[in-house]
């Protein structure tokens, strides 16, 4: 009788553990999907403001509305290397997020960049993950 109760207790503990684990993993997957949808919307609605190359373009009202309702930290976590090389400017994305009042937290990652506090006269300075300083102004890399 004692063995049966112990087995039942162990089975119940395993079931609870499995349930909690499943809930955590599923919630994280849902959150990542939300960020993917947010990212695609930002890429579409803010295309002119975050595109590679050229001068910075002020974000449109439609772009800012999308930025304000998006999870910008999630978007930053989900930027692929290909997107950073071919589709969008991370420095412009950070600038747009700040201008639209949904900034990515200083110290967090956005693609390969670590978000730094904005400088009064240099809002585009970031630190690469390797710790070396780089300057991204209008998408031309020049070492500082």
TrEMBL record:
Region forming the signal peptide: 1-31
- InterPro entries linked: Bifun_inhib/LTP/seed_sf (IPR036312), Bifunc_inhib/LTP/seed_store (IPR016140)
Pfam (any one): LTP_2
Annotated Gene3D superfamilies: Plant lipid-transfer and hydrophobic proteins
Domain Bifunctional inhibitor/plant lipid transfer protein/seed storage helical, first and last residues per copy? 16-110
Entry keyword set:
Signal
Spell out the protein name for this chain: Bifunctional inhibitor/plant lipid transfer protein/seed storage helical domain-containing protein
Please report the organism this UniProt entry assigns to the protein.
Miscanthus lutarioriparius
């Amino acid at each position: 009788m004692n063995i049966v109760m112990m087995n039942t207790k162990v089975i119940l503990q395993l079931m609870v553990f499995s349930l909690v684990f499943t809930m955590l993993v599923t919630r994280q997957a849902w959150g990542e999907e939300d960020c993917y949808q947010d990212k695609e919307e930002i890429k579409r609605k803010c295309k002119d403001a975050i595109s590679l190359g050229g001068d910075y373009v002020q974000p449109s009202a439609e772009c800012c509305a999308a930025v304000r309702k998006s999870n910008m930290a999630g978007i930053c976590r989900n930027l692929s290397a290909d997107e950073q090389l071919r589709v969008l400017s991370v420095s412009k994305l950070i600038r747009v997020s700040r201008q639209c009042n949904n900034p990515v937290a200083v110290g967090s990652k956005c693609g390969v960049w670590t978000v730094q506090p904005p400088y009064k006269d240099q809002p585009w300075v970031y630190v690469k993950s390797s710790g070396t300083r780089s300057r991204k102004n209008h998408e031309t890399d020049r070492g500082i």
